[in-house]
Amino acid sequence: MDRELKWIGQSIEQLAETGKKDGAYWRASYTPEDHRGAALLQQWMEDAGFQTYFDAVGNLYGRMEGTSDAVILTGSHRDTVANGGKYDGALGIITAIAAGSALYRTYGKPQKTLEVVALCEEEGSRFLSGYIGSRAIIGALSPADLQEVDEDGISLQTAMQTCGYYDGVLPKPREDVEQFLELHIEQGGILEKNGIHVGIVTAMVGLLIGDIVFHGAQNHAGTTPMDLRCDPVPAAASFVNTLHQWAMSKGHNLVCTVGNITASPGKSNVIANHVRLTFDIRAGRQSLLDEAKETIAFLLKKFAAYTPQVTYACQETPVPMDQEGVQHLETLADKQGAAYMRLASGAGHDAQIIGQRIKTNMIFVPSKNGVSHSPDEFTALEDIAAGYQLLKAYLKESAWRRKEADDGR
Ligand code: HGY
Ligand code: MN
Ligand code: MN
């Protein structure tokens, strides 16, 4: 186990280095950083005995054939947020490779086919809708979705074609995948605060992500009297403030983030032509997300003079994890004597997309100080160990069909 954990620790650092852009971690999909990261992951998968392949949207798979075609899928996303951390996504791929490799060395071929996956564009840090790789797996990506453009006006389709992944045909939904298991950092402070090493995820929040453009009349900052302006910046600021107050009134049942406000052309002596702001609203209850949409529509009526345009890039309902899988993980965690707790995820994950069609579960490991989506993201190896052992035990039973009691190895 120590040798595996050592490899996991080294690989986290090595993979992170491939995602450095101007000194910060940002491995956005279909970029040179992504290409370097995917190549390294592919090498590790092949060294571990997996056959590798890419699908038409750029997901990288490592396949270990079993005697049956039923696939046990495990892994996570390889992209990161801008100025992000080393563990979000990466840890789930690296632990999956390590577990598959160790089980193969000990028990040979699995009974059910094991596939590890490095999914693309989960974060939406290049293409706002996000979850591209996991949406492709369940057939929830349409040709129209590929027309979404990034901040440079490059479409998702062009980006995937340029990398040589997409040839005009989207991947068929995976009917052969029996279940998906994702190990991930908690990205919050609950496990750490409770001194617990393993989180068994029960459900994932629903998501409402998009942007709003407020339009104004571009003009001279010095010669235009205040009462003759149509300045979209104060309008957008007032909207954000009112939306924030609405969200605060929901207590811990909802979160709302405006992560980006951009005035164009963005010069100090020019009254803006338009303002674009992003919103990211999450809640465990769909009724609150529905109320959020109504609130946005109601608030924007007051700003009709700025012809606000709302685009909902990602709308996902809250998704429960597979209950039988939760109990199975608890039984295995008990057997290994791990301290664990059930918890819901406030972060979005590929598991919540795949879990809409395929039996899906997640294992959390603690995040130091609860920090994530930041270069300060960190999880010590001793805090990864229990979650990794649980992942391995689950794969041993589900893919290798060997009871943990067989030999306790
Ligand atoms: O935003 C999220 O929760 C995830 O990291 N994509
Ligand atoms: Mn993630
Ligand atoms: Mn993330």
Describe this entry's structure for a reader.
It is a single chain. With 409 residues, the protein is an alpha+beta fold. It folds into 2 domains: 2-204 and 319-407, Aminopeptidase (3-Layer(aba) Sandwich); 206-316, Alpha-Beta Plaits, CATH 3.30.70.360. It has helices at residues 2-18, 32-47, 90-107, 132-137, 156-162, 190-193, 232-248, 286-301, 323-335, 350-354, 381-398; strands at 20-21, 24-25, 51-54, 60-64, 68-77, 112-119, 177-185, 198-204, 206-215, 219-220, 254-257, 261-264, 270-271, 274-283, 309-316, 319-320, 340-345, 359-365. Strands 3, 4, 5, 6, 7, 8, 16, 17 and 18 form a 9-stranded mixed sheet that branches. Strands 9, 11, 12, 14 and 15 form a 5-stranded antiparallel sheet that branches. A two-stranded antiparallel ribbon has the order 1-2. Strand 3 and strand 4 form a beta hairpin. Helix 3 (90-107) packs across helix 11 and helix 7 runs antiparallel to helix 8 (286-301). The radius of gyration is 22 Å and the shape is globular. The mean pLDDT is 96. Bound molecules: (2S)-amino(hydroxy)ethanoic acid and manganese (II) ion (2 copies).
